[in-house]
User: Fold this.
Amino acid sequence: MTENPWTVEAAEVRYDNRWIRVTHHDVLTPAGTAGIYGTVHYKNLAIGIVPVDGEGHTWLVGQYRFPLGAYSWEIPEGGGPHGVDPLESAARELKEETGLLARAWRPILEMDLSNCVSDERAIAYLAWDLTQGAAEPEPTERLALRRLKLTEAIAWARDGRIRDALSVATLLALDLARRDGTLPAELQRAVGAP
Assistant:
């Protein structure tokens, strides 16, 4: 069942900018009927970071999300060009959004986002052994920062105050690591047992 059951009869790029490309496909569906499929290609890898300090705190970034028409609290996140080490992109995003520099990093998860219409992939990291510097947000961003206990951020992901998919998945993955006792020892002590 791993073979591609779709046949693409024609494809046309309908929209293209520096972040995404939208393609219209004329297809034969797995049932053999004619159909259409629109796909969104992302030109960057989605990157997320959960920084945790020695006191068990993390940082959330608040911003108004234009597509949703709503304010959103999220882990620090952004895009990293394909072909660039994702860890390099993660360090850049963490510095830009929070001013934090981390000396220790660990991948938490990789996931596909909205895979019914897009090829967007994401990778998220745990960052610790932090030094505070000045944030350097992009000129188009108006960001708010909030420092809170990691366990409180996890509660926000569980109760719906955080709705961003990458943030929710990453925070819940960290909660599982916390409960399993598989966080780095210094963080496990700082965050505490479940």
Remarks:
- The two ends are 40 Å apart (CA to CA).
- The chain has two domains: 7-41, 44-110+121-191.
